[in-house]
Amino acid sequence: MFIFPLLIVISFVLYIYYKVMIVRTRDPLTQDYLNSKSKIFLGSFILFFGVNQYVFYQTKLSLFIGLIFIALGIFQAQSGWKASKHYRNEYQKHQTQS
Predict the structure, then answer these.
(1) How far apart are CA 82 and CA 68, in angstroms?
(2) What pLDDT is recorded for position 7?
(3) Which of 8, 13, 38, 39 is within CB 3.0–4.6 Å of 18 for a Cys-Cys bond?
């Protein structure tokens, strides 16, 4: 399966990209929005890593570890998605007031 390592690398690169963009901006609202976007990609990285571990090894131990990684990845991506929606709306309100 070549797709999971590719998704792992893409999500990790996008996670690093958004973390670097946080350092480059000074606006706290924009930093929070970019941090929430980076949480989405961190969650997808953990999720795809957990799936890849089980597909690659296919043992009971890798199944348990993979399930833990999948659960943590889903939780991280979901919380990042909710925060991203919140900060996107706040950013739009901020832009209309200015």
Answers:
(1) 21
(2) 96
(3) 38
